[in-house]
Design a protein that fits this description.
The structure is a single chain. With 420 residues, this protein is an alpha+beta fold. 40% of the residues lie in helices and 21% in strands. It is built from 15 helices and 16 strands. The strands form three sheets. The protein has an eight-stranded mixed sheet. The longest helix is centred in the N-terminal third of the chain and has 20 residues. Bound molecules: histidyl-adenosine monophosphate. Histidyl-adenosine monophosphate binds next to β6, β10, β11 and α11.
């Protein structure tokens, strides 16, 4: 037998059974994002490799270990996007989007690629829905994107989650703080794990992300940036919290949030759920005021976030698959001459935009009913000798079992009323 080819490790098929859930998430996102004035942008999956090293940061794990980077046939070094922000900022700069309006609000959805060790909720090809707001450096804009995210998650029906917020200060505040942090952690160097030795060299704040118990204990007493903020930054953070409270968005301050990408400053946040296991963050984001300029654009501040769709699906799966909506009509002929008549009706119903289906050849009524139920149809329309003579179908509601006779001439309009 020929060897079967499988998907690559960490890259999943999304099968038809699950696609309805994805479509529900995407449709809800479009509705909510549109309501907040965000427009969709679609950028390429492949970009110049330097876009990501320059924006995400040379020293980050994403750039160091996780990027799918290779030379194409023209010898150009290109990368499959590991996240959406860099490409959107590149597009913003390339097309001078700031000239149309000083404030630009964009959203995107699609696959991202990171060469990570796959586990529950962590893949190599995963999907994000993200939003970026350009042109406002104010806690009111930070609050707007978090409120949008919170409302979106609630609209999906997800309830069991926590919003954690932090401020990373400005780049100026961070420099002396990082020195303090290095001095503190160096004092415990012999107790830190191997990975944290590297973090100490490259980005000591990432030690707060370590899952090792001894490192976690050392972190408890480490100096916090929250205590080193300027009066202005503290006031900004307080306003951000006030706007969230006014919108009734619950949050906790987690001074250990650092985020895995280097472009952030000031506000940072994550949405986490205990239902997800170790990959508990299903959304994250924050402010990045320097990136547009660093990528050759004007000095435009920005804030944004991205949600991980696979993690949303995990949170929604059991809940929504159980309440699948039944729809459409399955035509069930009893004999061969009825099959042709049913097939004619099938074409008419589809032309009228009514979801309908039937078997491709005459089968037993039992087998046709089984398929109608399996596919989740709301109605079955039976046609036998009696129905043909009277020019009707017997319409059965597969949920309630109610039966009624409907003239075939008005079947489409009758069904439309019922489905409504
Ligand atoms: P991020 O925290 O790296 O941020 O990713 C955002 C979300 O993508 C995560 O919370 C998680 O749900 C999901 N995610 C990340 N990696 C994986 C993976 N390997 N498998 C499954 N899901 C994953 C960003 O990407 C930033 N661009 C967010 C942003 C937008 N900040 C400002 N604007």
């Amino acid at each position: 037998m020929n060897k079967k080819i499988q998907t690559l490790t960490g890259m999943n098929d999304i099968l038809p059974d699950e696609v309805s859930l994805w479509q529900f998430i995407e449709k809800t996102a479009r509705d909510v994002f549109d309501c907040y004035g965000f427009s969709e942008i679609r950028v390429p999956l492949l970009e110049d490799a330097s876009l990501f090293s320059r924006s995400i940061g040379e020293a980050t794990e994403v750039v160091q270990k996780e990027m799918y980077t290779f030379k194409d046939k023209g010898d150009d070094l290109i990368t499959l996007r590991p996240e959406g922000t860099a490409g959107v900022v590149r597009a913003y700069v390339q097309h001078s989007l700031q000239t149309a309006d000083a404030i630009t609000k964009l959203y995107y959805m699609g696959p991202m690629f990171r060469y990570e060790r796959p586990q529950k909720g962590r893949l190599r090809q995963f999907h994000q829905i993200g939003a970026e707001l350009f042109g406002v450096d104010s806690p009111i804009a930070d609050a707007e994107v978090v409120i949008l995210l919170d409302r979106f998650v609630k609209k999906l029906g997800i309830e069991n989650y926590r919003l954690e917020i932090n401020t990373l200060g400005t780049m100026e505040e961070r420099k002396p703080y990082l020195k303090k942090l290095v001095t503190y952690f160096t004092g415990f160097k012999d107790k830190l794990c191997k990975d944290c030795h590297v973090r100490l060299e490259k980005n000591p704040q990432r030690i707060f992300d370590c899952k090792n118990e001894p490192c976690k204990i050392i972190c408890q007493e480490a100096p916090l940036l929250l205590n080193e903020l300027s009066a202005e930054s503290s006031a900004n953070f307080e306003s951000f919290k006030k706007y969230l409270s006014e919108a009734e968005v619950e949050f906790t301050v987690n001074p250990h949030i650092v985020r895995g990408l280097d472009y952030y400053e000031k506000t940072a946040f994550e949405f986490v759920s205990s239902e997800l296991g170790s990959q508990s963050a299903f959304a994250g984001g924050g402010r990045y005021n320097r990136l547009v300029k660093e990528l050759g654009g004007p000095d435009v501040p920005a804030v944004g976030f991205a949600l991980g769709c696979e993690r949303l699906v995990l949170l929604l799966k059991s809940k929504l698959l159980a309440t699948k909506n039944l729809e459409g009509v399955y035509l069930i002929p009893f004999q061969q001459d009825c099959w042709a008549e049913c097939h004619k009706i099938l074409l008419e119903l589809r032309d009228e935009g009514i979801k309908s289906e039937m078997d491709y050849e005459l089968k037993s009524v039992k087998s046709q009913m089984r398929r109608a139920n399996k596919l989740g149809f709301k109605y079955a329309a039976f046609m036998g000798e009696n129905e043909i003579k009277k020019g009707i179908v017997t319409l059965k509601d597969l949920q309630t079992g109610d039966q009624t006779e409907v003239d075939t001439a008005i079947l489409a309009s009758d069904l439309r009323k019922r489905i409504k």
